[in-house]
Structures are given as C-alpha cells and as structure tokens.
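Translate sequence into structure tokens.
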Amino acid sequence: MRTARRVVTLPPTLRGPDALRFATEARGRGAEVLEVRTDLHPAEAVDAAALAGVMELLVSERGTPLPPAWVAAARWVDRDVVHAGELAAPPGKLLASHHAERPLSTEEALRLWDVALPDGSLVKHVEPLGEVSRARVDALLETQARLGARFGAERVTVLAMGPVALPVRAVLARRNVLDYVAVGGDWKAAPGQRLLADAFREARALSSTGSTRAPPYPHPSPLPEGEGTSTVGRLGILGTSIAHSRSPRIHLQPFDRIDIPEDGPVEALVDALLPHYRGFAVTSPFKIRLARHTGSSLDAINTLVRRRDRWESFNTDTEGARTVLERLGAREAFVLGDGGASAAIRVVASEVGCQLRFLRRAEISGPLTGPGIWTWPDRVTPPDSLRFEGARVAVIAYGAPARRIATEITRRGGSPLLLGAAWFIAQARRQRALWETAT
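Result follows.
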C-alpha cells in the first residue's frame, strides 16, 4: 500500500521547452503524474511523448476531443463517465471521471456511477464543497467509501472543490488513488488544491514511519468520548496569504497549510473538521474571530487543540512576544497595530517591565522615535503619515514578508530589527507540547 500519487497539471501558459522544464522541475519536487488537459492546451502545443518521458502522463478530455498522439503517450486517459458508451481508451488506460455541478448526496453520487467500466479503470468523482459542515464532510467520505466498495479502493479518487476545500481534500487524499496538487505560485488547476511541497512532505513522513495509507474502508467514525491519542488526526495552519509559512516544515506530519479567504467561514470550517484534525495553528486574520467562536477568555488565540467533542483555545504567541520584548530590551515602546499579535504583546508587557503605546493606522500623525514593534501583516498598507526618526523597530514576521516590511521601515527612516524567527520558534515549541495533549 502507498500514498496517493501526486498529480500536477501543466499550466496553460507553458508550451514546448517550457513545458518540459516544468515537468522536470515538478518531478524533482515530488510530483509523480503530469496532467495535460484539452481545455488548457491545443494539440500542437504539447509534445506528449516528450512529456511522458519525464513522468507518467494523464491526458484529460475537457470539451475538445483528445488528440490521438496524447492518448498514445498517456498512462491514463480521463473521460467523463456521463458518456459511458463512448469511454473508449486503450486497455488499462481509462480514468472515468465526473465533475458534479452541485454538492450531491451519497445516493445521488452513486447513481451517476451505476455503469459498467472496463477492467482496471480508475474512477474520479469531483464535487463542489458547498456549505461547510460536518455533515457535508461525512457525505463526501461516505461517497468515497461506497465507491471504493463498488469499484475497489485501489481505483477510486474523490475530490472536493472550492475556496475552503483544501483541508477536506487533504482528508480525502488519505484514501484516494490520485492527489491533484498545485506546484505553487498564483496558478492552480482547481480551487482548494494544496501545495505539492506539503503533500510530498506528508508522504515522506508517513513512508518513514511505515504508515502509508489510511485505515481500510469504511472510514472511521468520530472518536467516542474518552478515547483517542495525540497521534489521531491531522494538524494544520489557518490563515490568509500564508504560502510563506514555515509551520509545515517544523511541525509533525500530516500538517496542512490551509490558506483561505479573509472573509471565509473559518468558524464553520474548524467545527466541520473536528473529527479529522487534532489541532490548528491560527494566524492573521482569524485569531480574534476564533477566540470569540471558541468562547475563549483571551482577546485573540493562535492555537486550537481538540478536546473530545470541542476545541480548546490557547495563545502561545505570548511566548513569542516575551522573547521579542526581552530582545528589544526597552522600558517603553510603541506598537504598530492592535490585532491578534498585539494582544499577546499586551499580556506579557508587564511581566518584562515594558510600557506600551498601541497605535492604529488612523492614530499616526508624526514621526515615531525610540523602540517599537511592527505587528501589521505585509499585506496591510501602512499610512502615508508613518515616519521614523532614529526608531529601532522590531519585525515579528519572517521570511519574504519580513524582508518587505524591513525595506518599508528603512524607507521611512527607521532601523528594522528582524525578530520574527525568534517569535515563531518560541510560540511553536509551546504549540507542539499542547497538540501532544489532544484527545
């Protein structure tokens, strides 16, 4: 048994040598199958035989018929199951698929697949996620289990699509044959795809422990009261614009980077995923919303831990805030922003003997002096009035966002102090200890 094969789709802008470079680079990063679709590339733009020489080729018919040369070179040929009488493909190559236009009940989905397929055919069933709820996730898992019982678990892939579908796809992937993922950058073949790097990291970790597949069908029900261990369920980080996050690199696998829109239904999502995840890291802009949703006494939280049938919330950012304030070594400091990170700084300021002045964007009218802390995410545009005079400004972001913020501080007359990594490591240590207590 093994994990699902990781499939990447050739972007529509890539042709000829660029397509071959993409395939080679994707294979080097852990991709195993390359998909080429007729709605993204005309026949003459693709050298199917050359691409098949790089890695296994999946060719998908989307409106325009598949070119014979593509079919000849392909390992699998994707055709819609609604054309059951026309599912011609060389023996052993057929991937019968269906893309539903709306969320389906399991019984509705099964009726679509009441067809006879050639021996060895793969089955791919795709639905929009629709309204986020535990019942909806359970329905997709039940469809996956029932299709697996009908056709064989080793032949079935079930996918959800939508702006918040990523964690549901990750849960489904543990019992899928194929896992459609995104290489990175701005383009994705479908909404909700997780990154190739994250899927490969999970597969590598599972392979090293000898646990390469989920339990056999039917899928397990939620844990009974009082049962379970810290090894049951996934981990993930919830946020917006978090492609730079290093959390998947340092935390135990499986760990998902769940990048959802700022106005996404994060509250409904964490409730729906309770049976499948044992914990979440929470970053901007959801720290305050999820504090309220979980009934926390804290103004903002950055960690959720499963406690049987509910989430318990924590703010390990206080560990990071303590580290940053100690490194800053100031008795007084200004803080730019008053969101989730600022809440953690406020909690520990008195412990380290630092008096803070919190400034929202509208409250900045003159040059700022002395030590300070920049808590705004780099996607937040600072006010034109922001200027520094001899100010030493701690940056609590890390990676590329931190470098962009540092440049902005320098441009406005300040001296940036990059402390994001110190904050991140301090709070992550505490998160890991908390997740180990999950039930």
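Note: The two ends are 28 Å apart (CA to CA).
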